[in-house]
Write a structure and sequence with these properties.
- The complex is a heterodimer of chains A (310) and B (246).
- With 310 residues, chain A is an alpha+beta fold.
- Chain A folds into two domains: 256 residues, Orthogonal Bundle (Transferase(Phosphotransferase), domain 1); 33 residues.
- Chain A is built from ten helices and ten strands.
- In chain A, the strands form three sheets. Chain A has a five-stranded antiparallel beta sheet, covered by helices on one side.
- In chain A, helix 6 runs antiparallel to helix 7 and helix 7 runs antiparallel to helix 8.
- Chain A starts with 5 loop residues before the first helix and ends with a helix.
- About 2% of the residues of chain A have low confidence.
- Chain B has 246 residues and is mainly alpha-helical.
- Chain B has one domain.
- In chain B, 65% of the residues lie in helices and 0% in strands.
- The longest helix of chain B is centred in the middle third of the chain and has 27 residues.
- The chains are: A alpha+beta (310), B mainly alpha (246).
- At the A-B interface, helix 1, helix 2 and strand 4 of A face helix 5, helix 6, helix 9 and helix 10 of B.
């Protein structure tokens, strides 16, 4: 038996996890990334002559029951037609039994890259609001994402916001479901930094829309993290979304989006009770133009009174 | 979704096998137990030997004795039948048993007799010793070292099984291409392989794709033999294929 060096071993590990698309309509182009759930690669759809992103899930084998459930759940995900949700084009099985699904290939930056490029706080909040709207749409159709994080949010070339990677999504009212992954009680799915406490404990049956709201709060916290001046209201929105008790979080992603909208419009937010001074400061800030106009008028009047007496 | 989406995929999927040595280690039938033991021994003796050498600072003779005695004792006392997949992976369980065994032996301070009927197993300790010398300065923890050596050994066994399978099924060329392109230290192109084997490059491409697919299947079959549950199999497969959790 020939001894395998570290380099050779690593090469073989890569080789065996590379997708074999020989029985599909796709041609492998390159690997885009890999993580705990599987590999994402760029491939060419030969029939439609376009590039697609393909995620190959890391299930070495699959039962007939799981395959059938996948089909049903993939159909639900594919029906999520929203400008903020990356469309799923196709789902299938590779010759070695691994499941893949093909998605639109989005050109642009991930949200973490977008933030690192120095986007302003207001721009970040606007993008975040779009994410909330896309998630609210999915929730309205009974789909919970379960792995929301900056790396799964893309800012496209025209500034459009797209939520990616619905591969571990859960269909509400089907507690064992997971769009493309078998999920059992005690299984921890997601990314720790953005994971709700119930998700971290592996309480699959307890996961619902508010678990995604926790993750959204963590994404907001990430966006606020490197900002020099963050208002108490913005921090309070993030904290409310990330409450350890589900009941204390926003009830819906739309409610969270609405609070972000109020924050952007310099209106009071539901997550934070202002004192009189803060209320006045915010009012002055919001009506800066009017205040300046009144001040200018008053100064003019004082000047006129002063000069007429002389 | 497109109405004609290809869901099913081609028919030749990875076949699930039910020949788990870990499950068979609990069998009432002594012959089934013996076969299960042989599989476990074949899959673990080398990482075990290297681990004892490094973690327990045993010299090669001592490590040889400890390795053989550990497996002999495991078979005689049926250690492996007590494994519970809900608590840990089999690999972790075996390593924990091994640590306990070596610690007890060290405490007893007696010179070990090579266990039971282990002498009829052809364990190539000289090769293991040679490999150990090649990577003795490992910076990994002992646990990670054991895991890495187990992965290396599983791939080595899979290469051997794959070679045999190709030869038996009249596909020796597939293995030879795989060996030249993926196992050799020399870099070769598809074109040079095509010239050497009298094939066109498209055929080389197809044969290599098929060989890699079958090799992957062989690796997973080997793994299936030494895992007890689907959950453990999936977790270990991720780790074996180098797709670690985020």
């Amino acid at each position: 038996m020939k001894w395998l060096s570290d380099d050779k071993l690593n090469h073989l590990r890569t080789v065996v996890s590379e997708p074999d698309f020989s029985a599909t309509k796709y041609t492998f182009v390159k690997e885009l990334g890999r993580g705990g759930m599987g590999i994402v690669c760029l491939a060419e759809d030969r029939e439609l002559d376009r590039l697609v992103a393909i995620k190959i899930l890391n299930t070495p084998d699959i039962t007939e029951d799981l395959r059938n459930r996948m089909i049903r759940e993939a159909q639900i995900i594919a029906r999520l037609e929203h400008p903020g949700i990356v469309p799923v084009h196709d789902v299938g099985t590779l010759p070695d039994g691994r499941i893949y699904y093909a998605m639109k290939f989005v050109r642009g930056n991930r949200l973490d890259e977008y933030a690192a490029q120095g986007a302003s706080l207001r721009d970040r909040l606007r993008k975040f609001q779009s994410v909330c709207d896309a998630v609210a749409f999915a929730h309205a159709h009974g789909v919970i994402h379960r792995d929301l994080k900056p790396q799964n949010i893309m800012i496209g070339s025209f500034g459009e916001v797209l939520v990616l990677d619905w591969g571990v999504a859960k269909i509400r009212d089907d507690p064992r479901s997971s769009a493309f992954h078998e999920t059992m009680e005690g299984t921890v799915i997601g990314t720790r930094r953005y994971m709700s406490p119930e998700q971290e404990r592996g309480e699959i049956d307890q996961l619902d829309e508010r678990s995604d709201i926790y993750a959204l709060g963590a994404v907001l916290s990430f966006l606020l993290n490197d900002q020099p001046k963050v208002s108490k209201a913005a921090a309070a929105i993030s904290s409310k979304a990330m409450s350890s008790e589900k009941a204390n979080r926003y009830a819906t992603a739309s409610d969270l989006s609405a609070d972000i909208g109020r924050l952007l419009d310099d209106e009071p937010v539901s997550a934070y009770r202002e004192n009189a001074f803060e209320r006045t400061s915010r009012w002055v800030g919001k009506n800066r133009f009017l205040v300046l106009l009144v001040l200018a008028y008053l100064l003019m009047r004082i000047f006129l009174i002063f000069t007429s007496r002389r | 979704m497109d109405p004609d989406t290809d869901i099913g995929g081609p028919a030749h999927r990875f076949p699930a096998t039910n020949h788990s040595a870990i499950i068979n280690a609990r069998s009432d039938d002594s012959r089934v137990r013996r076969r299960a033991f042989d599989t476990i021994l074949a899959s673990y003796w080398k990482p075990t030997y290297k681990y004892i050498r490094l973690k327990w600072h045993a010299d090669n003779e001592d490590a040889k004795d400890l390795t053989q005695s550990f497996f002999a004792s495991a078979f005689e006392k049926n250690y492996f039948a007590t494994y519970d997949a809900r608590k840990a992976s089999f690999q972790t369980f075996l390593r924990t048993c091994l640590d306990g065994f070596v610690a007890n032996e060290r405490k007893a301070g007696s010179r070990l007799k090579r266990g039971g009927d282990m002498d009829h197993y052809q364990l190539d300790f000289a090769a293991a010793e040679h490999e150990l010398a090649a990577h003795a300065s490992s910076t990994l923890s002992h646990e990670d070292y054991f895991h890495r050596e187990w992965v290396r050994w599983m791939f080595t066994l899979a290469v051997d099984a794959f070679r045999q399978r190709c030869e038996e099924s009249g596909r020796a060329v597939h293995f030879q291409l795989f060996e030249r392109y993926d196992l050799s230290d020399d870099e070769v192109s598809y074109a040079s392989l095509a010239a050497d084997f009298g094939l066109d490059t498209a055929t080389v491409n197809n044969y290599l794709a098929a060989a890699r697919r079958d090799f992957r299947r062989t690796v997973l079959e080997k793994l299936r033999e030494i895992t007890a549950t689907d959950e453990e199999f999936r977790t270990e497969a991720r780790s074996l294929l180098g797709i670690e959790a985020k």
